[in-house]
Amino acid sequence: MSKLNVKKVIIFKHGVSYYILEGKIKGTNTFELEFKIDEMDDVLKSLFVLDTSEKGYISSISYD
Fold first, then answer.
1. CA-based Rg of the chain, rounded to a whole angstrom?
2. Which domain holds residue 46?
3. What are the angstrom distances between the C-alpha of 2 and each of 15, 23, 45?
């Protein structure tokens, strides 16, 4: 499992926050993000994943 590091955190005055995580995922490795069940709706509406290497692709995103 790969590790993502927090690169930037922005907290708005109305309680909304914005996190930028960065890391290297090699081959078929995965990573996990953990959230409270009552936060999942907001997370799923706003999750954005980007491959900046231009060498690969994001094949799927799943959640339990």
1. 13
2. 1-64
3. 29, 8, 24
Say how many domains are in the chain: 1
pTM for the complete prediction? 0.65
Residue 52 to residue 15: CA distance in whole angstroms:
29
Torsion angle in degrees (nearest 10) through CA of 10, 14, 43, 19? 0
Q: How many CA atoms lie within 13 A of 37 on its CB side?
A: 1
Encode the chain (64 residues) as per-residue pLDDT tens digits. 788 899 999 999 998 888 999 988 887 888 888 889 998 898 888 888 888 888 878 888 888 7
